[in-house]
Amino acid sequence: MPAQVVQDATARLLIVDDAPSNIHLLHQAVEGLGQVFFATDGESALVRALELRPNVILLDIEMPGLDGYAVFDRLKATPELQDVAVIFVTAHDRAPHERAVLDLGGVDFLHKPIDLPVARARVRTQLALQQKTRELDRARRDLAGVLDSLPGLVLELDEAGRVRFCNDRCRVWLGRPAADLLGGGIDEVLPVADRPALIEAVHSARGGGREVLELALDRDGGGGRHAQAVLVPRESGVLLLLTDITDRVFAERALAQEKERIRITLESIGDAVIATDRDGIVTFVNPIAEDMTGWLRADAVGRPIEEVMQLHDPIEKRSLVNPIRLAISEERTVGMALNCQLRRRDGRDFAVEDSAAPIRDHRGEIIGAIVVFHDVSEARAMAIKMTHLAKHDALTNLPNRILLQDRCLQAVEDARREQGRVAMLLIDLDRFLHINDAVGHAVGDQILQTVAQRLRAQLHGGGTVSRQGGDEFIVLLPGVDELEQVGMLAHQLLAVVAEPYWCEDRRYDLTASIGISIFPDDASDVETLHRHADAAMYRAKQDGRARFHFFSAEIEESLRSRHRLASDLRLALEGRQFRLHYQPQVAAGSGRIVGVEALLRWPRSGAPATSPAAFIPMAEESGLIVPLGAWVLGEACAAACRWRDAGAPTRVSVNVSAVQFLDPGWLDLVRATLARTGLTAGLLELEITEGVLARDLPRTLGIINELKAIGVSIALDDFGTGYSSLSYLKRFPIDVLKIDQSFVREMTDDPCDAAIVGAVTRMAQGLGLQLVAEGVETPAQADLLAQLGCGIMQGYRFSRPVPEEDLLRLLLHGTLTPDP
Questions:
Q1: CA separation (Å) from 15 to 19, 46, 85, 88, 312?
Q2: Cβ 564 vs Cβ 539: under 8 Å
Q3: Contact call for residues 314 and 342 (beta carbons, < 8 A)
Q4: How many whole angstroms separate alpha carbon 157 and alpha carbon 596?
Q5: Dist. CA 188–CA 153, nearest whole Å
Q6: For the whole model, what pTM was predicted?
Q7: Computed over its alpha carbons, how large is the radius of gyration of the chain?
Q8: Would the pLDDT of 337 be above 80?
């Protein structure tokens, strides 16, 4: 709209007139519409026009030299100036000059004297027209660019079905320039196989309908291109858009071929295959599955998978969940349970092995599942053999890198989930290459096989030993509870490697260096765990070989502390540094001492006393608990004899660990100790925990019955903190129950603990068992225990553990009066 045109700083206006006054008036008329330039004669006007390339020239007709018509002719003869808009200006008669101007190609005519508003309006109109023309040209270029860049072929057909426009300028679709196609009939231009269908679609679209069809193009007889044609009616013809669907057509054909190939494969493979929908209803059964299940496809389709494929466990005599159900519900591939059998329709059973996997659509949604199964007889044996060969070292039959990597990843994931630890011990044989170089690889291989056997024997069924190649081995320990067990194992591995090797009556000696890394203390992943173990092994090599190093200095220092403790423990036992204290067990009503418990103390010279909670576990781990326990038993029995001889016979209770109790010489030790000290068996009570009972039930029951036959009493310590307590009370001849102090400590504040103590008291009374409450420290605890029916108590409320001599004085006094 011209009224909206404002000054365009880029527009250039050239005024050509020989009269300065006219130039001045025209300048006033066009001021503000652009940059204004002028010339006073025809020659200079042509020069200025070439320099400026003006948008509009206001050209006077009557000028000396070249008049306006001559200048106009020269302008139109100049290619660069042919499109300049020329408005003629004259003082002559309006009509004949205006017709002449327009006939020549002028765009407008101004008559002198100049009407300034009219002149301004006409110039502004020309500028607006030029602006719209530029925009239209730009739109046409953009549209042409869009059409040229479309991935499809665009054809515009006239009413006669002839090509009026084509965007195939690069001959991509039809192999001919677009210009060659113009005017040709659609059936001539498009080399399609089904010409009648195309012609019919064009006629239908011409009638006002939108048509879509697929065409096969046969360009130059080469074929190979498929297109989707969309025909849209136009006012004077039809617009045809072709989209290349060759890839889709080929993909559909390939899919159809693949489906047929899969069908033939499923029909011909040696495994049984059953497919179901997402509800577990059978949709497909191949011939092998028909034979194995006894169900024909026609009968099986539409039935639940459990009816067609009946699985059961022959050992536990129960039906098994079909893996199809698990695959669908858990959205994963599922293997068949062990000991799985398939019951055929005729009732016959045979072992099968299978896996089931969900079937997903293109969106990833589960639409069903498929199960593949077969007879396991030969296939299972072969699979096991092949799997073993793939994951084990050929020389030593140890797991190789592949299997170790799998186990490392699993161990780390388990430890991360359960907040546990995993240890990796990297073992490198020291100077092994010297043996290979000196006597050959045959001897070296024998030695490596022996090393593998020795290392594997030290794990006792736990962990993994792997050969990494050459003379390098790795031990993986998952589920590490105590770091000390890692160090102890490292010591054992060094020892067994260092034992002599005999090959062909010749002795060979080796040592090893071990690097240890702990997850998550030293590493957050398997790769780092291995790298740190390797670094620690290198450190062991640097420090002189035949040793091990932890990667973490803190862990290594902790282990050294435990080793020092174990060494000190051994020295203390040899030097008889241990002492026994005794804590009375008191009848709460009378204050009479009815028994004492022997408690081990270690008063270390020049160091604080070590708690039994610290050194008893170490003694059990190191095996020192057996001689230490024998010493405790002998000392306690001897003390009880002295109290008896002093006129204060008292039953003494001795704690027995699981390691002691199951030691082969334990029963003989008890008999020998009683005989040596002269103590009556009735004055000895042995305290065991539920953990002892759970170790080896038949053997434990036999030992307890032997002890009872001798006359020794059995007390169950820490009752209620273990597992299956009621079962133990029923199966084992227990005399005394000791309520653990953890229940006593909180019973006055925690109703649950009080209820537990009350229940244990009533149960002990019902079973005819004596009951002793440990850890009684306050009057409130003692009063509540008495109210609940517990009459014998032990704890600081009555007396701390005291030496033998102090206890004798308490025994001779007869009763204990609790502190107020």
A1: 11, 12, 12, 10, 106
A2: no
A3: no
A4: 115
A5: 16
A6: 0.43
A7: 52
A8: no
> For 150-249, which CATH superfamily applies?
PAS domain (3.30.450.20)
CA-CA-CA-CA dihedral for 70, 74, 75, 78, to nearest 10: 170
- Predicted confidence at residue 575, as pLDDT, reads 85
Select from 428, 445, 425 the least CA-distant residue to 508: 445
Interatomic CA distance for residues 245 and 217, integer angstroms: 11
| SS3 assignment for 307-340 | HHCEEEECCCCEECCCHHHHHHHHCCCEECCCCC
Give the CATH superfamily of 394-551.
Reverse transcriptase/Diguanylate cyclase domain (3.30.70.270)
Residues near 665 by beta carbon (within 8 Å), at least 6 away in sequence: none
269-377: CATH topology: Beta-Lactamase (3.30.450)
Amino acid identity, residue 322?
Answer: N
Query: Which residues make Cβ contacts (< 8 Å) with residue 378, sequence separation at least 6?
Result: none
Residues 680 and 649: their CA atoms lie apart, in Å, by 10
Token pair for residue 119? Answer: 């002149």
How many other CB atoms are there within 10 angstroms of residue 162's CB atom? Answer: 17
Exposed/middle/buried for 638, CB within 10 Å: 0-12, 13-18, 19+?
A: middle
Tell me which DSSP letter residue 190 carries: S
What's the start-to-end Cα distance of the chain, in Å?
112
Task: Give residue-wise pLDDT tens across range 688-718.
Answer: 987 777 667 788 889 999 999 999 999 998 7
Residue 111 three-state SS:
strand
> Domain boundaries in the chain?
2-145, 150-249, 269-377, 394-551, 581-598+621-813
Q: 495 pLDDT exceeds 70?
A: yes
| Segment 722-745, tens digit of pLDDT | 554 576 777 888 899 998 888 898
